[in-house]
Amino acid sequence: MKISDLAVLIKGAVEGDNDINITSLSGIGSAGEGDLTFALDEKKLSQAEKSRSSCVLTTLAMRTSTKPLIRVHNPKLAFLISYRILYPLEPSTSFIHSSAVVASSVKFGNNVCIGAQVSIEGHVTIGDNVIIESGCVIKGKCFIGDSCHLYPRVVLYQNSVLKRNVILHAGVVVGCDGFGYVKDQETIYKFPQLGKVIIEENVEIGANTSIDRGSLDDTVIGANSKIDNLCHIAHNVKIGRNVIMAAQCGIAGSVVIGDNVTMSGQVAVIDNVTIGKNATIGGKSGIIGNIDDGAVMWGLPARPLAQTKRQMALLFWLTKNFSILSKMVKEKA
Amino acid sequence: MKISDLAVLIKGAVEGDNDINITSLSGIGSAGEGDLTFALDEKKLSQAEKSRSSCVLTTLAMRTSTKPLIRVHNPKLAFLISYRILYPLEPSTSFIHSSAVVASSVKFGNNVCIGAQVSIEGHVTIGDNVIIESGCVIKGKCFIGDSCHLYPRVVLYQNSVLKRNVILHAGVVVGCDGFGYVKDQETIYKFPQLGKVIIEENVEIGANTSIDRGSLDDTVIGANSKIDNLCHIAHNVKIGRNVIMAAQCGIAGSVVIGDNVTMSGQVAVIDNVTIGKNATIGGKSGIIGNIDDGAVMWGLPARPLAQTKRQMALLFWLTKNFSILSKMVKEKA
Amino acid sequence: MKISDLAVLIKGAVEGDNDINITSLSGIGSAGEGDLTFALDEKKLSQAEKSRSSCVLTTLAMRTSTKPLIRVHNPKLAFLISYRILYPLEPSTSFIHSSAVVASSVKFGNNVCIGAQVSIEGHVTIGDNVIIESGCVIKGKCFIGDSCHLYPRVVLYQNSVLKRNVILHAGVVVGCDGFGYVKDQETIYKFPQLGKVIIEENVEIGANTSIDRGSLDDTVIGANSKIDNLCHIAHNVKIGRNVIMAAQCGIAGSVVIGDNVTMSGQVAVIDNVTIGKNATIGGKSGIIGNIDDGAVMWGLPARPLAQTKRQMALLFWLTKNFSILSKMVKEKA
Questions:
Q1: How many helices (H) and strands (E) does chain B have?
Q2: Is the ipTM of this structure higher than 0.90?
C-alpha cells in the first residue's frame, strides 16, 4: 500500500515520497524495509531514522526527517488503525470442533467458533461472531454477547453475562463463589452466593484473573473497562466505565469504582468503600477508605500523592538529621 | 412455605402475620414479593420495609416493624439455613461423562459425578457424593474424600489428599512443585519436591489459588479453613484449623499458621515463621518474624496495629510541623 | 545401594560403617530406616541422630556423629544428586493420547508424550523427549524445545518459543496479550500486541503465572531463570539469566532485569526501569526507578536496605519520644 493512500485513511499528511510502499508494521527496534513505525518524540525519530523502516508516523509538531513521514494528530492511534487496515480481521466461519461437548439446549448465533475440548452446559445463549477457544468451560444459563472472544481455558460459572465484544484471556474465571462465611460459635458456615457477574460491552480481562459472582446482588464490570492479569474482583463489586486496572489488583467485596478510574498494579481496596470517578491510584497502594472524585492517591495506606511524597522526603530528612534530633530530645528529656 | 413453619425450623419467633408465604430469598436491594430477606441494623430494616419483601429476618433486640419479622439469635446464619431449607441440594446420581478419560485403576464411591473432558490418572481413590466438573485433571494416586466438589479446570498433582467436603474453585492447582533450588557455583539445580499436599475436611479454596506440595515434608491445610482466590501457599506450609485467608495472600515456605488466624488480602509471610493462633493480620501486611498468639498486626513490616497507627499519626504530625522542626534542627546544627 | 558406593558418585567421604545400605531419601522429620538425609548444621545433625535414618549427608567441617556420615562440599547438592541416582528418570516412550486434538501440520521429535484432552494447533514444532500433560492448549506456530515439560492445563498463545528443558507448571499462560491501550477522546482502543514470548533453556515457571507477549518487540525470559507461582510478567520485559523470582511478583511493561537478580515475593516493578545484575530485592518492595548492579533494596518505594531499616528504627524512636518532641515543637511554635 502506498503511504499516500494510507495517509488518506488515517487522516494524515505525507512528508516525503508519496509513492513509498509499506507492507507491514513494527516497532522501531525491529523495523525492516517496507515497515511502518511510529515516533512520539525526537529521540524515537532519530532511532527510526537509523532503522530500515520505510515510513514513520509522527506528530504534527515534529521536526522534518530524512525518512518519509506521515504526520497525524495521534500517531499511536494512527498506528493502531493502520494495523487494522493492513491486517483486517478475517470473518470467522461457523465451526464447532467435534471434541466439544455442547448441551442440546445451547442457542447459537451466526459465525460461532467453538474450539476443541470446550464444554458448554445447558441453556447457554451465544451471540454472533463469538469465538470460544479450546478448553473453555461454560456452565449453565450463561449469556455470551456478539463478538465476544474467550481465549483457551476460560471458565464461566452459571448465569454469567457477557455483553458484546468482551475479551477474556486464558485462565480467566468468571462467577466463582465470593468469600462469604458466617461464624457461629466455633463453626464457619458458607453463606449462599446467589448473584451473578455482568460484564458490559468492550471489556477486556487478562489471564488468570478471577471475578466472583455477587452474594445476593450482582458483580458488575462497566463498559470499556480493561482489567489486567491476575486481578481479583470480589463479590458485589461495581466497576464503572472506562476503568483501567493494572495487574494483580485486589478489590474486596461490595467496593464501588467510578468511571474513568485508573489503578496501577498490586493495589488493594478494602471492602465496602467507594472510589470516586476519575481517581488515579498509584501502584501497590492500600485503599482503606472512600476516595474523592479525581483524587490522585498513593501509599499504604493511600493518601494524596503530594502528601505521601512529603512524608517520604520527611523520612529522608529525619534520618539525615537524626543525631541532632536525638541530642535535642536527650537534652529536653 | 408459611413463615410460621420456617420460624420453627430456624428457631425464631414470628412477629406479624404467621400465614405469610415465602417462596425465595434475596438481598434487600432486589427483594420482591414472596422473598425472605434479613436486616442486622435499623438502617437495613428501614430499607427492607421500603422493599417488596414479604418477611425480614432480624435480631432479637430490633425495633418492631411494618413488615412481618422473624426474630432469631443470628439472622445471617438463619438466612443461610433458610436457603438450605428452600433450596435443598439435589442428590447427584452417578455419572461419568463419555468424554472423560479415567484410568481403569481409579476407585469410585457412590454417586460420583465426573464432567466432560476430565482426566483422572492411575490409582486415584474417590469417595461418595464427589463432583468433579469439566476439565479437571487428577494425577496419579490422589485421594478425594466424600462430598468433595472440584469446580472446572482444577488440577491435582500426584499424591494430593483431600479429606471430606473440600471445595476447590476453578483453576485451583494443588501439589505443584515448591520453589526449591540449590546454587552451586554458577549453576542452579532443582531440589527434589517429594512431599504432598493434605487438605483437611471442610476446606474451601478460591479460584486460581496454588498450593505447593512439600519438598521433603508435606504441606497441610487444616480443617474448616477458607482460602480465597489467587493465594499462594508454598511448600511445607502448615495452616491450622478455621483459618480465614483473603485473596492474593502469599505464604512462603515452611510457615506455620495457628488455628483461627484471620488474614486480610495481599498479606505476605516470609519463610519459616510461625503465626500464633487467633492472630489477626491486616491487609497488605508483610510478616517478617514470628507473631504471638492473638496478636493484631498491620503494616510493612507488620507491627501491632496500635503501633502502626501511632506511626501513621506521627508522620502526619511531622509533616504538618516540619517547618518548626526544620528551624529547630538548623539552630542546633 | 551401599553408602560407600554412593559416596564415590557424589565425591564424598564416608565416616562410619561403609556397608550400610540406603534405599530411599527423606527429610529429617520423616526419616526411616534405609533413608539418606542431610544436615547443614549441628542442630539438624542432632535431630538426624535421633531419627531412624541410616546415613546423613553433611559438611566437611561438621563434628563427628553416632550416625554414619558422608561428608561433602555441598550436602544439599549431594542430596539432590543422590536423589537422581536412586530415582533415575525413566525414559518416556512416544505416546499421544487418543483424546488429544493435534493438527496435522504439527512436527514431533522422538519420545514425545501428549496427555489426554490436549489441543495443539497448526504448525507447532515439538522437540525430543517433550511431555505435554492433560488439558494443555498450544496455539499455532509455537516452538517447544527438547526435554520441555508442560504440566496440566498450560496455555501457549501463538508463536511462543520454549528453548530446551523448560518446565511450565499447571495453569501457566504464555503469550497472552499485553495491557496496551490508546486513549483518544473518550474512547479506549486496544493497541496491537504482535510480539512473542521467548523462554530460554532451563527455565522453570510456577503455577498460574502469566507472561504477556511483546507488543511490537518480544518478551524474553533468560536461561536458567526460575519464576514462582502467580507472577505477572508484562509485555516486552527482558529477564536475564539465573534470575530467581519468588511468588506473586509483578513486572510491568518493558522492564529489564539483569542476570542473577534475586527477588522475594510480591515485589512490584514499575514499567520501563532497569534492575542491574546481581541486585537483591526484598519481599513486597515497590521498585519505582532504576536499580544499580548488586544493590540490595527493600521497601515501598524500595530504597537501599540499610536506609529502609534506618527509617524503620527512626519511626520507632520517634513514636517513643513523641511527647518530648511534641513539647519542643509547641514551645517553638
A1: 5, 38
A2: yes
